[in-house]
Amino acid sequence: MRGLTALLLLMLPLAGPVQAGLVEEGEALFNRGARPGAAAPKVRTAGGQVLPATAMPCAGCHGRDGLGGTAEAGLRPPAVLWSALSRPGAGRPPYDDALLMRAVVQGTAAGGRGLDPVMPRYGLSVEDGRALSAYLRALDGMSAPGVEEGLVRIGLLLPAGPGGEAFARAFEGAIAAAAPEGVFGRRVTVLPASIPDPGALAEEVARLAGAGLLALVSALPVGPGEEVAALAAREGVPLLSVRAGAGAAGRAFALLPGPVEEGAALLRLVPDAGRALIVAGEGASERLLAERIAERFGEIDDAAPEVVPLPALAARAAEASAVLLVAGPEAVGRAASAMRGTGVPLMIPGALGGGAAPRAAAATGRQVLVGFGTPPGGGDGAARQRFAASPAAAAGLTGRLGHAAGEVMVEALRRAGRRLTREGLSAALDAPEPFETGSLPRLRPAGGGRAATGGILLGWVDERGAILPASEPAAMR
């Protein structure tokens, strides 16, 4: 007992600055059971067996991240990050260095009660104790933004209105169903932000990032989504968008193809694509998308369609082999009026103006070719059962997309492992293994703002909204 008292007294000065060498020694002791070049401490088990600590290092039960291990025999090893130890817990005062060493060596909690016998007793030296305390302090600084003991925070950007609300319900419902007890003991907390005005986007992203986020999910349409990608990259936050955009820097991923891939797939159906026109709407984001479509098509075909502004369409439409309109629904009527009587096929990426295709078909007097990046059908297995039992199943496409995003996020958190970091989550999203979504076919989120074209449905849409699949270039003639 006298030796233990001396050890505890010697531990008291550790409240000051922590030396880097001590942290490295503590890391080895915590994860492998011995400091470099030092003999391994002895550890006594509940059954009285004496072993070297290398056989039972701290990380074996408390996890390499110090966030607590998996429950065994009804007991879950607690988190041992200094932020957890140094604040009051259930029925105990905060730990300090001396109380921590008493717990490790003697098995006595900060409040004086005995720890569960499952917790081994370690015969630490003074040097061992100093190194261990230093490392537990350093572990806090190794945690990723948005990751704390018992929770992980995910930001969610939503369009204003009922559609955004429906997406949020589906997203949060999928997370609650797929991870009712959290992921590795961490409850997934969603911080939603409705964006009524694109001008408020930068402020909202900064606010969410300031609250501490592991990742950001965006249900915004493609135009504002381009700005989200840039803002997320600036903040260093991984981004999972519903649809791919024109391209994104940093850790940006998309569940489904967007207008770039839809547009490139549509152009592949044009027999003389070099005479096709890519007509850009009047917004800067639409011009960017049009240029990206031309670049993307150039990667898979030697033809070079020309990008022209919407006001030039009336004078140029008759000479084109086809017109690809890169603009929102509000511009579809103008384009259709400019093309009436020309006999030139009108094509629309579904992510931009697909909903206005029946109106365009009525205005032009002929069917409109649309690329739909949302694959038909649903998923399989347990994810499919969760979706079928959820309110999202009755919420149409919005419910399907929100549920899929929630399922993918939960599975990505699991694949990223117990030591959650933004880099680890990005790697999980970028891995080749597909995700079961329950509401969509198995998919693999694509990085860099691009998604594969394999799931794009190309179809002729008439004025009633009926869709006739189109898969051959001959369909354009």
Automatic annotation (TrEMBL):
Alphabetical keyword list: Heme, Iron, Metal-binding, Signal
GO molecular function terms noted in the UniProt entry: electron transfer activity; heme binding; metal ion binding
Cytochrome c domain location: 21-140
Keyword Transcription regulation: no
Signal peptide per UniProt: 1-20
Keyword Glycoprotein set for record: no
Protein name: Mono/diheme cytochrome c family protein
Organism: Muricoccus pecuniae
